Amino acid sequence: MLQSSNALTIQRSSFQTNLFSLSSSIIMMNKHNFYYIFALIALLAMTNSCKKKEAPNFHFEYMGLSEGRYVIYDVVDITHDIGATIPHDTLIYQLKTHWGETYVDNEGRNSRKFRRYTRNTPADAWALKDTWYGLIDGIRGELVEENQRVVKLVFSPTQQKEWDANAYNTFAPLGCYYDDIHKSKTIGGVNYDSTVVVEQADEQNAILKIRKYEVYAKNIGLISKFYMDNDFQQSSIPENGVELYYTIVSYGFE
Predict the structure, then answer these.
(1) Inter-residue contact 186 to 232 (CB < 8 Å)
(2) pLDDT score recorded for residue 185
(3) Could you say which DSSP state residue 124 is in?
(4) What values do phi and psi take at 100, rounded to 5?
């Protein structure tokens, strides 16, 4: 009986030892799984954190605001006035714009001088027409034209962006929005791989026709301008109004 009791005790002790060993193994496995899951979560969190720290791309390059950047345009400028000596006066010339040195405006903002030159034909010398200045203030691309601040672009370009180009001047409100964002366009036989269209006005009826938009190319700036604001009365020919068209000819640095 004593031997049987001892044998039973040994068996129980062996069973308890095996059970403890099994429990320890399960606990160790759970610990390993816990550490593995914890490490995986930490890695994912670090990855997401790195992604969140990536700086957004505002595409400021559409403003073309680099020192030395110039753009040359062919310009057609038409004035309609049936009471004038020349009722439909048309001027054809070239315009050159040039981003110059930095300049501190009357609000203490760092900006850049924007000089504009004209000539009648490519054979003529350039004559300075006026000096404006431009800057990027926060998300606004502004051009100060004859001391009037005009918001040309708002960054980054999206379908949801809407703004008043004349919010900071004395002109009538001009609602703007984007179209054809980051699309390629061919103008004057040259392809520009990334452009945006700033829509400004599109209204037409029996007595008026208003159509205004501008096209900007990345790293260049304005490459095309369409401005038409005409009044009609008794005919299909405008009685009063203005038309102004810019078409890029060349660009570069100097």
Answers:
(1) no
(2) 97
(3) S
(4) -105, -145
pTM: 0.79
Rounded Cα gap, residues 134 and 195, in angstroms: 20
In the predicted structure, residue 117 carries a pLDDT above the cut 80: yes
Three-class DSSP category at 39 = helix
Domain boundaries in the chain?
Answer: 1-54, 61-253
Question: Are the C-beta atoms of 136 and 153 separated by less than 8 Å?
Answer: no
Please state the rounded mean pLDDT for residues 33-52: 54
End-to-end CA distance of the chain: 112
229's CB contacts (< 8 A; 6+ apart) are 201, 208, 209, 210, 212, 241, 242, 243
Q: Tokens 């392809």 correspond to what residue?
A: 191
SS3 242: strand
Residue pair 244/92 in contact by the 8 Å Cβ criterion: no
Domain 61-253 falls under CATH 2.160.10: no
Joined together, the tokens standing for residue 253 give: 């640095």
Percentage above 90 pLDDT, the chain: 73
Whether 122 and 31 have beta carbons less than 8 Å apart is answered as no
